[in-house]
């Protein structure tokens, strides 16, 4: 039963110290006594794989700040035991961020212990599988889209750009923006994904090299808003081409942490650069995002964005996501 505690050892992916400031990861057996002393024990049904997870598993990024560490920045599952009245046995819950896989043991485990203040009830519209098909990437997409809406940008104000469009955040953002009536342009380096992106709602596709270049402080005004998952030169180019009073929601750094831009877009065009942090977002913002996802996300389209893989494939998939070879979720 999904609501039964473990009767013995179970599997988890552990990231460990390999010496010389390097880490190694492997799937091992642990027991419930190895888990941190948090109040809610969860039987994990699904987790997801994100770029950050890929860096942690492959050791190509120093993500885990405490070792050993169970990887995985999100999970969805069923409450098995609860020391708090906030959640009961049998409740379906999810968690994104809050330091999972960095300072707190994460979702790559058959069982996990979480703090109740981290948990969100899975919306009735979604199964546990769908909740992690959305995962931290789709939830981040919704935070970006809400930032654009809250800034007062309407579909009639002009097109909205999504960079890194074929990834998890980009894929969901395109669908959400399209559902809300925005004209969406998708920037990607993979021409093979153009049909996929247009099926999600993109009206046109842009080669990432058109943005991944040295930008002038100001260029021709093109987009009313943008969702940027790339950073670096791409973000600088997007800012230079954002329309007067527009907003760029920045949530990623796959292109780099630097920002070779100037103050010109901000002080001459009133462009807003809105940082989107999904990991430590307050609960009210999280609950709004999941409520909006339940209302906006088409389950059929969601099914085209993600695929389910066995836990044993995590090391291989981690290599693929770091190399930019995974489409969607």
Description:
With about 325 residues, the protein is α/β, with parallel strands linked by helices. It is about 30% helix and about 25% strand. The protein has 9 helices and 14 strands. It has helices spanning about 50-60, 130-150, 170-180, 195-200, 230-240, 265-270, 285-295, 300-305, 315-320, and strands at about 10-20, 20-30, 40-45, 70, 75-80, 90-95, 110-115, 120, 160, 185-190, 200-205, 225-230, 240-250, 270-275. Strand 12 (about 225-230), helix 5 (about 230-240) and strand 13 form a beta-alpha-beta unit. The longest helix has 23 residues, at about 130-150. About 45% of the residues are buried. The mean pLDDT is about 95.
**What share of residues is helical?**
25-40%
From the N-terminal CA to the C-terminal CA, the straight-line distance is 27 Å
Unreliable segments of 5+ consecutive residues = none
How many strands? Answer: 14
Q: How can the largest sheet be summarized?
A: 6 strands, parallel
**Portion in strands:** 15-25%
Strand-and-helix sequence, N→C? EEEHEEEEEHEHEHEEHEHEHHH
The total count of helices amounts to 9
Indicate the mean pLDDT: 94
**Large-scale geometry:** globular
Determine Rg (CA atoms, Å): 20 Å
The secondary-structure class comes to alpha/beta
């Amino acid at each position: 039963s999904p609501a039964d505690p473990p009767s013995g050892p179970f599997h988890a992916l552990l990231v460990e110290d390999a010496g010389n400031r390097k880490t190694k990861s492997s799937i091992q057996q642990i027991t419930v006594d190895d888990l941190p002393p948090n109040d809610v024990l969860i039987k994990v049904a699904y987790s997801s794989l994100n770029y950050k997870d890929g860096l942690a598993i492959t050791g190509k990024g120093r993500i885990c700040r405490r070792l050993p560490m169970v990887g995985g920045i999100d999970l969805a599952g069923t409450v098995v035991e609860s020391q708090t009245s906030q959640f009961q046995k049998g409740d379906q819950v999810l968690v994104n961020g809050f330091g999972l896989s960095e300072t707190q043991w994460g979702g790559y485990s058959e069982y996990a212990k979480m703090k109740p203040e981290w948990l969100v009830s899975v919306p009735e519209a979604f199964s546990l599988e769908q909740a992690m098909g959305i995962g931290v990437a789709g939830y981040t997409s919704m935070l970006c889209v809400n930032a654009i809406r809250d800034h007062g940008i309407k579909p009639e104000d002009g097109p909205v750009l999504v960079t890194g469009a074929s990834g998890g955040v980009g894929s969901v953002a395109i669908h959400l923006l399209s559902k809300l009536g925005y004209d969406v342009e998708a920037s990607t380096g993979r021409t093979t994904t153009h049909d996929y992106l247009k099926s999600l709602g993109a009206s046109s596709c842009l080669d990432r090299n058109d943005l991944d270049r040295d930008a002038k402080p100001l260029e021709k005004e093109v987009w009313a808003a943008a969702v940027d998952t790339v950073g670096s030169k791409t973000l600088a180019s997007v800012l230079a081409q954002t329309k007067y009073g527009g907003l760029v929601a920045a949530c990623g750094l796959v292109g780099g942490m630097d920002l070779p831009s100037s103050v010109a877009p901000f002080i001459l065009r009133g462009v807003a650069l809105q940082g989107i942090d999904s990991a430590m977002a307050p609960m009210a913002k999280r609950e709004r995002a999941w409520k909006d996802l339940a209302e906006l996300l088409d389950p059929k389209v969601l099914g085209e964005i993600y695929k389910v893989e066995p836990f044993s494939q995590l090391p291989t998939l981690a290599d693929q996501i770091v190399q930019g070879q995974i489409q969607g979720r």
